[in-house]
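Input for the complex:
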Amino acid sequence: MVESPQSQNALSPDELHEAWAVLSADERLEGFRLLPPAVADDFFLGLTAREQAELILSLPQGERRTWVRLLPPDDLADLVQAVEPEQVDAILSQLDDASRREVNVLLAYSEDDAGGLMNPRFARVRPDMSIDEAIGYLRKQAREKVETVYYAYVLDAEQRLQGVLSLRQLFQAAPDKRVADVMQRDVITVAENTDQEAVSRTFSEHSFMAMPVVDEQRRMKGIVTVDDIVDVVQEEATEDIQKVGGMEALDAPYFDVGFLAMLKKRAGWLMVLFLGEMLTATAMGYFEHEIARAVVLSLFIPLIISSGGNSGSQATTLIIRSLALSEMRLKDWWRVARRELSTGLALGAVLGVVGFTRVMVWQALFHSYGDHAFLIGMTVGVSLVGVVMFGTLSGSMLPFILRRVGFDPASASAPFVATLVDVSGLVIYFTAASLFLRGTLL
Amino acid sequence: MVESPQSQNALSPDELHEAWAVLSADERLEGFRLLPPAVADDFFLGLTAREQAELILSLPQGERRTWVRLLPPDDLADLVQAVEPEQVDAILSQLDDASRREVNVLLAYSEDDAGGLMNPRFARVRPDMSIDEAIGYLRKQAREKVETVYYAYVLDAEQRLQGVLSLRQLFQAAPDKRVADVMQRDVITVAENTDQEAVSRTFSEHSFMAMPVVDEQRRMKGIVTVDDIVDVVQEEATEDIQKVGGMEALDAPYFDVGFLAMLKKRAGWLMVLFLGEMLTATAMGYFEHEIARAVVLSLFIPLIISSGGNSGSQATTLIIRSLALSEMRLKDWWRVARRELSTGLALGAVLGVVGFTRVMVWQALFHSYGDHAFLIGMTVGVSLVGVVMFGTLSGSMLPFILRRVGFDPASASAPFVATLVDVSGLVIYFTAASLFLRGTLL
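Predicted:
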């Protein structure tokens, strides 16, 4: 059987999408060119802004225009922000004057604001139109360049937003009514400079498909659509997860970050944690004599301090996420503190009992801990209660404190809390030891 | 001045929404009843299914119907799943027979599947309709009960999906063309039992506003809209963050989880980690003689093992998130392993140098570490390189291994990796110590 080289190499769009991250620039170009024209558009629109930019720049000059012009202005603005400054012209020169102006207006907004997310092309009608006129006018706009027509926005002559009509309301209304009679006047809007996280919260509170962006005079500037919000939500969640893991947010997929850039994002926090953790060496120095007299005490140090770190890590992640989702606010700290104190006591009691039992069982089986096993068991058990309570409480309060002083609560990462608790855990442990073992081992 | 009691107590919808979590059931009901009728609908639709259920059940019988009937079938199905089994009838009895049947069909799907997310009411047209007939038919459907009309789905007589038309395409087409001539035949669909995470990935690859759900015979069952996907993405991210923090996913807002339920979600993993961490006490037992001969060694134990935990925590969170976002797949493990090995070496070298310097500086300033400070410094520095490399490598590989054997990679939580690294970190440290200090301190 003879196959054409095309059918041998061509990947389906889904296969190509899956393999994209691991393909070289040449392979990407080749795979893309082998896609049937009918699906290539959809495939291209599904790429991230960075991937679109790389693909376009790997095409010869003559082939770029089609793809650049396929993108709506908001996506073009993202794409321009993903390329090196010297390549911006290579992209923008492919556009007609009107579109280039639209993109330049969008570029003036910060990428993380509502203005940076919005599409300046939206469906508009006048308040004095009849319903039938409005539907006809929308059909005309859809034929030209408005791509999203879920809502028709009612603007006066000064472009100020007067009301909104969903397509459903428009279709439901009697054809001879006027727009002003049926429109909803109470429109929920976002300001141009509203942060994207706040925009996504407004979306999830109201389940709209799109929201209008207005300036201070309530002049309408564009719409943010919910499909862009999905990406915002993913991005913000990724940032939070990476911060919770104890590093700077990467802002790009793993394989797209260079070796040195990756090192920088990780070494910074690792060094801060390391310097903090050095205090444990200092703290241990204070207890050197106790350790020398009762080496057995040192055996439980990793167990005790890590239990504090683990319970603190649970508490801090819980609170960081609840704050991010607005399930709680700053002024709820006292309610959280009381609750975490009792949770910490219960969790500490459970671990304390198991820790005490571990010491007594090993003593019965192997005589591991000499004459004072009971007192050592008490030291371990009581320290665990204290350390877990302290870990839970400080893990839950740290995100509130960070937000209060203006930092991102997600910086109260699991390793950060663990480091904090390690130092104080040592103090708690050796204090308990001196209470129980003074006069016997110490 | 005399104010009516109403104006004194009434909160704005936004204020009420913000305060909702901390209000009692009675306060919620009161605040809700004081809302102006025009905004109460929107406010109600913005509540979560659980909050809607609680509110409806706190209303007297006679007032429930309006609110139950305001909800589309997919939201009703969520609401029914949020109430106790014995209260389902109190909700469903408010519906007309047709809607109750729709909700019951949806309830047969698993909550986390496309079928459980979908709305069975969608806009449909026939392939042989003219464009003008299709628009007229859509207007009729919008007047009845279809609420989302972003796409018109083209179904044959057996309800099999033949194609799709966006409203824009419909509006753009010449009025006398037939639907079959302009529709797009290549429709991306999801199956009824597709998992919601996979559905959200398909959405983010294609930026659609809605996607059709079909059965095995390609009969169309409903649509999933992107606004529901925002919630899915938030939910999945919350689950991942909580697992990364070392606990079971809560599945509900912090304040909605009872004290005992919260304890259970946290105590399970904390106990697993504690039992794992007990191995450190066993490991330390093996090195008890070394510690007794050189107590100074014990001072650096928390510093060394926590550095391994921190670097492992960074690596594991990075990989967990990349796997969740499909930025990498199982077969990329080797590429990741090579990269993390060099990253770990670089990070370990940085910390190792700082650790060695710390020992030498303290020695110069305070003579803290006796005659063999240089060798102790070497032990600390070299162990840090080894521990950080081991932490980075095992933190990055564990999520791959978990996925390979069928578990959720997010279970490779930061505390889990830290525990793993603590035990092996002790072995690495004492091995380095015996290499450098044999014949002098040991």
